[in-house]
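Single Protein Entry

Contents — chain, fold
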Amino acid sequence: MSKWQYTKGLHDLGTGCFAYLQPDGSWGFSNAGLIVDGDQTLLVDTLFDLALTCEMLGQMRAAVPAAKSIGRLVNTHANGDHTFGNQLVAGAEIIASRACAEEMKERPAEELAAMQRNWRQLGEAGAFLHEVMGSKFKWDDVRNTPPTRVFEDELRLKVGDKEVLLKNVGPAHTRGDILVHVPQDRTVFTGDILFVEGHPVLWAGPVDNWVAACDRILAWDAETVVPGHGPITDKRGVQAMKDYLLYIKQEARKRFDAGMPVFAAARDIALDRFAGWGSTQPLDTMQLFGEMGRLRAELKARAAAHAHAPGHQHAD
């Protein structure tokens, strides 16, 4: 059992790091973090709308005097539930991977707000957007606020005397995922590389990159792991995520080789090993369907590359 309670609000990790949690961790209800040393702070992600972000910042500023002036913000990836509150951290340097910044430019908050306003004209996809997210969050007042500083592979920062490593592990969940590692505090903020007790969504892939990102966390001397969604965990939560990804990939491969259509394959994969993860609503199948579609595209691309590789013999 985790020593951390999974309750909404700010949790002091006891090291100068804080986690802000939003149960139940489903679509849009993400986590964030705060790293503090002396009078310096680094915010890890904002939330899915201004009201939620304002509430979070209020709790941080009440608990941590230095948080009244946040100098830097890191966006772990481009999804709106980690970036749509950026405008409320006025004057802060906003740091992200270059791929994340590009993705934020391609999918601004204003576009999602427009889709929500017109969801009835968007058919089944619009109804899904409205039911799962649009009816729960307010985006009309969100301004796309992109990063002001980008990097490629990794970036080392100082927060007071603490070293903070930003490591780009994308494309995986999205094109530009980064991990935020605080070695002195043995703490990692993973963004959506880690979902705890919830089915992940694979927007980009390949799966192997995501598995490699899990391996990186497992190799670090880390004791406390704050996921993008779900309760605070340790390396056991990371191993569970890796096991899930490898299992889905293995089962997808079998059904791809058998020529099974994507949606049928997604429904056919038994999730008994992960029965306690998230809800048992059709949303889980839709998430799995998305993963299967990307896995199938990945497998097809590999098959095509193999067929055209030098020395490959084509059957007559």
